[in-house]
Amino acid sequence: MELSELRARARKIELLLMDCDGVLTDGRLYFGPEGETLKVFHARDGEGLTQWKAAGLAAGIISGRNSPSVALRASQLGMSYVLQGRSDKATALREILAESGHSPEQAAFIGDDTPDLQAFELVGLSIAVNDAHSTVKATADVVIQANGGQGAVREVIDMILAARKEMSDSADQ
After folding, report:
1. CA 42/CA 145 separation, integer angstroms
2. 13 touches 142 (CB < 8 A)
């Protein structure tokens, strides 16, 4: 995708959705002594999501797994939508669009593996992390530089907010 088209699509984004494992985390699963799954989240992603929310924009997670730590982290960051245990990501995404009132063109989805391809088909901007499965990278509108769990969400937020600022700055002139 050409940079001008990427910027044009990014300017329309008001709803940022993402997978969790492999996007907000590095995709590895740690198991504690009681069998609980532990996840590591990057602070830069958290700061990016805080800035996203401060800009009046909505964010959410659609994950195939269930994890109390994901719900806790999403709550800490004020994320509007957290759908866990949802292997049918297309249906989950449609539910969020209906509830939020956003059009598909106003939504972006960040993914890393083949279950995320369902969501890619329904959004205005599909984004793959750098270490995503090759099929996901080949399908995405854009592949970012960061790997999952290494500030990937922050990179996407910075890109979209910069495009939206360009639009706002040009409208002011």
Report:
1. 15
2. no
pLDDT tens sequence across 96-118: 999 999 999 999 999 999 999 99
- Per-domain residue ranges of the chain: 3-172
Contacts of 97 (CB under 8 A, 6+ apart): 15, 103, 104, 107, 122
Higher pLDDT, 173 or 61: 61
Is residue 45 a contact partner of residue 150, using CB atoms and an 8 Å limit?
Answer: no
The H or E element that residue 161 is part of is helix 152-172
Taking a C-beta distance cutoff of 8 angstroms, is the pair 156, 144 a contact? Answer: yes
**This model's pTM is above 0.85:** yes
Fold of 3-172: Rossmann fold (3.40.50)
Please state the φ and ψ torsions of residue 23, each to the nearest 5 degrees.
-120, -65
How high is the pLDDT of residue 131?
98
Alpha-carbon gap, residue 141 to 54, rounded angstroms: 26
Cα dihedral 53/58/63/65 (nearest 10): 50
pLDDT of residue 108: 98
Report the chain's mean pLDDT, rounded to a whole number. Answer: 94
